[in-house]
Amino acid sequence: MIELKPAAVRAAWTAYGNDARDEFGDARGRCEAAGAHDLDDVSTTLRDAAGDMGGVLDVVLAVLEEHRAGMEECIVDFENSDCNTAGEFNALTR
After folding, report:
1. CA distances from 70 to 30, 38, 94 (A)
2. For residue 13, what is the enclosing H or E element?
3. pTM: predicted TM-score of the whole model, two decimal places
4. CB-based contacts of 25, cutoff 8 Å, min separation 6
5. What are the pLDDT tens digits along the chain (94 aa)?
6. Is 2 left (phi over 0), alpha (psi -120 to 50) or beta?
7. Distance of CA 35 to the CA centre of its chain
């Protein structure tokens, strides 16, 4: 038997997943500004590092969104089942 409380899972995602997305999104928005600072001999390195960090944050944001979408799909599958049997949660196989 699967014990799942869809409202609790969604509430946790709202509380923590959305917060993580917002924090990473804010950080992503600051990468371009960080790379634009003029610090003489380190400006090229700083620009390169800011670009790399921007790419990392893009990946993190994509993973968060994929997880949110997969989790929601699984909850919907569960709610559309008898809420007792395992069934198949295809969003978990991606």
Report:
1. 28, 42, 9
2. none
3. 0.58
4. 61
5. 567 788 888 888 888 888 888 888 888 877 777 666 666 667 777 777 778 888 888 888 888 888 888 888 888 888 887 776 555 555 555 4
6. beta
7. 24
Structure tokens at 31: 């990468």
Residues near 59 by beta carbon (within 8 Å), at least 6 away in sequence? none
HEC string of 29-46 equals HHHHHHHHCCCHHHHHHH
Read off the tokens for 16.
């923590």
What is the CA angle 50-52-54, rounded to 5?
70
How far is CA 6 from each of CA 3, 13, 14, 48, 69, rounded to the nearest angstrom?
10, 11, 12, 43, 14
